[in-house]
Amino acid sequence: KNENLSRKSKREGKSEEIEMALLEWFKNARERRISIPRGILFHKAQDFANLFGDSDFKATDGWLTRWKERNNIVYRKLHGEKQDADFSSAADWVNDVWPTLIKDYKPEQIFNTDETGLFFRALPEHTLLFNNELTGGCKKIKERLTVLLTCNMTGTVKKNPLVIGKSLKPRCFKGVKHLPTSYANSYNAWMTSSIFTKLLLEWDKELKNEKVVLLLDNCSAHPADEDLCLKHIKLVFLPPNTTAIIQPLDQGIIRSFKFHYRKMVVRKIICDINCDSSLELLTAKKLSKSLTILESMHLTRNSWDIVSTQKI
Questions:
Q1: Can you say whether the dihedral through the CA atoms of 98, 99, 104, 107 is positive or negative?
Q2: Angle formed by the axes of helices 2-31 and 61-70, nearest 10°
Q3: What is the DSSP letter of 172?
Q4: Sign of the CA dihedral with 97 first, then 98, 99, and 102 last
Q5: Is CB count within 10 Å lower at the N or C end of the chain?
Q6: Candidates 2.60.120, 3.30.420, 3.40.50, 3.10.180; correct CATH number of 87-125+139-311?
Q7: DSSP 195-240
Q8: pTM
Q9: How far is CA 163 from CA 12, 188, 299, in A?
Q10: Helix, strand or coil for residue 111?
Q11: Per-residue three-class SS string for 26-76
């Protein structure tokens, strides 16, 4: 009986992961005004089930109804056909265009890259607590970095992350000879064309005689292939308004990276308190505010290393 309860709790835990991942994907799609028919939701839910290794999960009508009710999602008719074209063009591109672009490349030669914003001092938004505890409002700590993640289709190559901050030389870098990740800066800590160009040219030089395909979105910071004269990297841009649907790193990989990152931030705070009793009276939020960019880069590198080949 206990074994059955254990299996049930594991299954429910995985189901919650699937539902949270699906909700995040749904939010991203709706923010881009992409229409989501029922069939796509079923398909994506099953994709996430495979990603999280839940072979027992089945996306049924009853499950979908309960998921919609829990998340205040309704099914409505849209006026006009423009939004419906996004899924249609994405499907056409994946089925007809993409195979012709990669036909001369092996899976391990096909890469994807994507930027993500990281509130590097923010704590997880959910926690266990006693039933009689008050959950006071907690503002998110908004110091932001941008992290660029790049990996190949097989997950056998995960390139060193690039972290972008505002400061040219953060004080925490003083005396440090080797950084755990690459680092660049811009006035708003966002990706810029010059940063991305420099990165691509360095990678192109490293490849020597190897050829790769790099799939990326149409971000304004991503320069066109012909502007760069790359010898070994072939850039392939996703069609407009399809990023949320077919960008590989957006299908749970970045989410997995951030999950591990938040866990490591909490572990660091607990470790700091255990190692220094004078910190016991400080709140976790105050302790997280002391996290430096260098420490965040270490956590970024470790979190990216943990993301498994199976997840990718």
A1: positive
A2: 70
A3: G
A4: positive
A5: N
A6: 3.30.420
A7: HHHHHHHHHHHHHTT--EEEEE---TTS--GGGTT-SSEEEEEPPT
A8: 0.68
A9: 35, 13, 11
A10: strand
A11: HHHHHHCCCCCCHHHHHHHHHHHHHHCCCCCCCCCHHHHHHHHHHCCCCCC
Print burial letters for 151-190: b (CB count within 10 Å at least 16), e (below 16).
bbbebeebbebbbbbeeeebeebeeeeeebbbbbebeebb
Residue in 275, 169, 162 with CA at minimum distance from that of residue 221: 162
* pLDDT of 43 strictly over 90: no
Residue 219 has pLDDT above 50, yes or no: yes
> Which tokens sit at 94?
């994946």
d(C-alpha 280, C-alpha 284), whole Å: 9
Mean pLDDT of 71-78: 70
First to last CA, the chain: 35
Q: What pLDDT is recorded for position 151?
A: 96
> pLDDT digit string (tens) for 92-124?
888 889 999 999 999 999 999 999 999 888 765
- Give which of 190, 184, 188 is closest to 170, Cα–Cα: 184
Pseudo-torsion of CA 168, 174, 178, 183, nearest 10°? Answer: -20
Tally the residues of the chain.
312
Alpha-carbon gap, residue 261 to 302, rounded angstroms: 8
Domain residue spans of the chain: 16-71, 87-125+139-311
Asked if residues 175 and 73 have their Cβ atoms less than 8 Å apart, the reply is no
Question: Is it true that domain 16-71 has CATH number 1.10.10.60?
Answer: yes
